[in-house]
Design goal:
By secondary structure, the protein is an alpha/beta fold. It has two domains: about 130 residues, Rossmann fold, CATH 3.40.50; about 170 residues, Dihydrodipicolinate Reductase, domain 2 (2-Layer Sandwich), CATH 3.30.360.10. The chain has eleven helices and 14 strands. The chain has an eight-stranded mixed β-sheet with strand order 8-9-10-7-11-12-13-14. Helix 1 links the parallel strand 1 and strand 2. The radius of gyration is 21 Å and the shape is globular.
Amino acid sequence: MVMNPSAEKPKRVRVAMIGTGGMARHHIRNMLLQADTTVIPVVCEPSPAQYAETRKVFEEAGAEPPANEPNLGALLHEHGDQLDAAFIITPHAYHHDQTLACMEAGLDVLLEKPMVMNAEEARSLIAARDQTGGLLVVAFPGSLSPRIQTAVKMLRGGELGDILGISGTVWQNWGPNTANTWRQVPEIAGGGFLFDTGAHMLNTVSDLAGENFVEVAAWLDNNGRPVDTRASVMARTESGALVTLHACGEAIPSCASDVMVFGTKGILTVGIWGEKLALQRQGARRARNIKVPPSLGVWEQFLAVRDGALPNPCPPEVGLRMALLWDAIKESAARDGAPVKPH
């Protein structure tokens, strides 16, 4: 096939980074590897120290650092017509209002997890998506990873037969690592380890289950901190699959996960971020890794959704699903583990 050298190159997506802390800089490094599809002309960062660190990331990559407008309202007023999207990576309590403002300004949004603080906020963003016609994707690496997408297709396609049970574990030295930060301020964080790092487990297990939870029992322990750092959850799905979840945020220095799906025809093993995928089929002695296409992370997947190359695997309905589960976990924990029905 002969390419036309005069053909216009695809337009780069102009995105504003809302928040430029450590997690945002992790994403920016991957986004700078996608300079042919992405440009970051402006960021919204109220902390001069965080903005200075972000400038270093651009300079180290040989890229022009973006301008900073610390006030989101001013950014949208002054730059909104020069932007296509916003990537929001801020403390959890701010997600709803910032997303609403960006969508009402006509921007598509990639929103860091957890989407919102509660089910009411989730329903509000679903309504905003419907009213504006914009795109809203929740930045769960699991839902957006080729491995979890492959696992979900296998499960929905019946390759493992009926799902009998799911067991998930996540651990990290989160308690000491996040001490004296906003992540341990309940009013801003909305929860502790299970709502932060553990949110990946709640979401990925829900993706794999593929149906609603009808009963949840949970125990949360703060371990002397302002928010929970240890959690144990038991649940039952609509079809009767039994689910167990364990989160330990007081582990030795580490950060890892394991999720196993037990089906009538095999056992699937994944990670909550989509970092692994292995299948042990009926009759096989051991699990074998399943190869999937590589990915540069959530931004690359967001662009694929935006271009219509991939159905949105993490719409705001996913955020509502997790909010309902989290609300049930909190309600059960407050009742010393009494089973509750998500509502």
